[in-house]
Amino acid sequence: MAQIDHSPARGILSKATGFIRAFDYTLNPYNGCAFACSYCYAAFFAPTQQLQDEWGKWVRVKENALELLRARRKRPLIDKSLYISSVTDPYQPVERQLELTRAILRELADYHRVTVVIQTRSPLVTRDLDVLRDFAHARVNMTVTTDDETVRKAFEPLCPSNAQRLDAIAAVKADGVDACVTMTPLLPVRNLAAFAEALRATGVEKFVIQNFHETKSRFVAGTGEAARALLRERGWDERHYAQVREVLASALPTLREGQAGFAPQWDAATSSSTMPAATLPESATIGTPPPG
Ligand code: SF4
């Protein structure tokens, strides 16, 4: 269980940069993350070395998040796009009791024409479908990384299973809310044909893929060694990824790769992924995807 603290934040909206620079702002209701993914780059934004080392074991609730957002009513977020969240998951386990993300969404839903994209790996997002339906445009990006629970437990020991995530995003889609599956990063897959079929069976029409890039500094939370050994054991490399990408691209005609899939709005019907996977521009793979 992660240690939960409450403290005031100085701000609630940050200018979006890097991989998600197509958005106007990022919004993080929490600092830290109880999901403890071993590859999470957000850990390196923790303010102290100790907090970096203990990534996954602490969550700070921005207790004044709603108040800070309400102050923005003086300067409405008309036509702005928000990415929720860039350095945490907005559906932390404690969100079930606190309902902080829910309160933020209720507040934002009152603003004119604001676009929100929720990035999560928690089925708890389905609790807030009633609020998400009130937006002019809201999308849920559900991160799904593998079909293999052994892999998931090595890299994402405290996350919901990928099967739970697929069920959740299917429920989002069935409810009429825009939905996307972000395989960012994609980890070793056990049964590719069955995985592609499970993705299609969600009814979702938007998919994003991004390779897993291993660098030593990107591993935290004590699961690093086991995860690296598993990558070697499965022979996961660029070539293997390219093969998987090709199969997924033919099974999922709207598949996008990398940053192209992190636009505030995109129309699956006109997706660039109608390109064969082998001809996707190499530049699309460059950059660090947001966590979540
Ligand atoms: S990748 Fe996302 S869910 Fe995982 S620890 Fe980082 S912020 Fe949390």
Structure write-up:
An 8-stranded mixed sheet has the order 2-3-6-7-8-9-10-11, covered by helices on one side. Strands 1-5-4 form a 3-stranded mixed sheet, with no helix packed on it. Helices cover 29% and strands 18% of the residues. Helix 2 packs parallel to helix 4 (100-109). The chain has one domain (3-285): Alpha-Beta Horseshoe (pyruvate-formate lyase- activating enzyme), CATH 3.80.30. The model is unreliable at 272-288 (pLDDT under 50). The chain is an alpha/beta fold and 292 residues long. It binds iron/sulfur cluster.
Q: Spatial order of the strands in the main sheet?
A: 2-3-6-7-8-9-10-11
Catalogue the ligands. Answer: iron/sulfur cluster
- Helix amount: 25-40%
Q: How many separate domains?
A: 1
How would you summarize the topology of this molecule?
Layout: E1 3-7, E2 13-15, E3 25-27, E4 30-32, H1 49-53, E5 58-62, H2 65-71, E6 81-84, H3 95-98, H4 100-109, E7 115-120, H5 129-132, E8 137-143, H6 149-155, H7 162-174, E9 178-186, H8 192-201, E10 207-211, H9 224-234, H10 238-251, E11 255-257
Parallel strand pairs: 1-5, 3-6, 6-7, 7-8, 8-9, 9-10, 10-11
Antiparallel strand pairs: 2-3, 4-5
Helix pairs in contact: 2-4, 8-10
Bound molecules: iron/sulfur cluster.
